[in-house]
Amino acid sequence: MHRKKSTSRMKRILVSAQRHLSIFIIKVGFNRKGKSVRHLRLGTDYGGWWVPEVFLNQENRKLLISAGLGHDVSFEKEMLNFGFEVVGLDPLPECVEYAKVELSNYKKISLINKGLWISTGKIDFYSPPSKNSDAYSITNSHFNENAEILQFEVITLVQLQQQFLDDLIDEYELVVLKLDIEGAEIQILSDYLSGPGKKLDFLAVELDSVSLIPFWKFGERFAAIILARKFMKQLSELGYVLTLTDGYNFHWITRNKLSLVG
Question: Rounded to two decimals, what is the model's pTM?
Answer without folding.
Answer: 0.89
